[in-house]
Amino acid sequence: MTAVILDISRLISRVRHHTPSGVDRVEMAYARGLQRLYGDKLAFAAVHPTGQYGRIDRATALAYLDELERRWTSEDGSSGQRSIASVLPWMIRLLPKPIPAGEGRPIFVQVSPHHLIDRAKVARKLTAENARFVCMVHDLIPIEYPEYARPGGAELHARRMDTVAAFADAVIVNSAATGRSFQPWIERSGREIATHVALLGTERMALPEETPQGDGRPWFVCLGTIEPRKNHLLLLHLWRELAQTLPPERVPRLVVIGRRGWENEQVLDMLDRCPALAPHVEEVAGCSDRRLASLVRGARALLMPSFAEGFGMPIAEALSVGVPVICSDIPAHHEVGGETPDYAGPLDGARWKTLVLDHAERGPAWQAQAARLPQWQAPTWDDHMGLVEQALARLA
Predict the structure, then answer these.
(1) What pLDDT is stored for residue 210 in this prediction?
(2) Strand extents, DSSP E, the chain
(3) For 28-38, how does the pLDDT look when each residue is reduced to its tens digit (9 = 90+)?
């Protein structure tokens, strides 16, 4: 059997963090999934925060993954990042070791964008490993929608895609929409790069906290980094209108879960300085998996009004525990949700208002979606890893 190497640079770079990002969860799912598939034939490698590349001791890597999952389940990050002194023992244990000789030609798998900006570094890794390269592409949003990215983000992401197109033997994409976006890079490269569409698996939601949430009013959840493309502004303007036109006891709560991102001045001004929103909108920056489970499971619906997404993981997570979803009418959301969610244009404020008020009262639209929910099938990590296994077998 061909040896498989998984790059866990991203997870090691998060050694000081309490809670994960979406990419962190994907890299963790690959670590667990490839371990089940390949056992001792799976090796771990990383570019250490010191800059050194090499293999990570297998037992150490698995122990570190256990430690991260423990944190994600029980910690909320409210105390900020861990101190450097407190994580130094892990940093030392995770120092890379030399690449062993005599492995033939392994397959190197990378599912995060870590270090893809540096083509020379990626080339050195692949040459040192004498490996074929399989990479995941999550989205091309910074290139297609540069107005939603950090300044310079489009150029940096284009460099990542150039690196993938230059070196990858196969690419995993998380949706057909992402695959269509990446196709021009394959065509310009002049190389034959197999593209495999594999929807991300639905994360199993943690057991909820026992503490009841809220004040008796129904609440809605918006989950994701607070950044322009997530379109939080639509929801905040809607909630201000509800606060100004309804009795306070009839205004549902909105719980915004996610760290603050970039280019967000107007959104953050509303969160920090709008008195009409204060009694009705709660911002949760750090959230343990257990508290997240409580907030999502108890919500009247999950709201996702994004302008652009590569996949839409929160939609799958909500639907998987029977929570209705109202989301923007974009291709990636349809791939995940199918016919189950209620869709609205990301600028159609009137429809969002109608749907939110209906779901708050468990009205006809809410009841219709509740009837559709049992027919929705969650994409699973087993299915995803099965497609990955087929892709690696073709290379081998």
Answers:
(1) 64
(2) 4-7, 42-47, 53-56, 107-110, 132-137, 170-173, 194-197, 219-223, 253-257, 281-284, 301-304, 325-328, 342-344
(3) 999 999 999 99
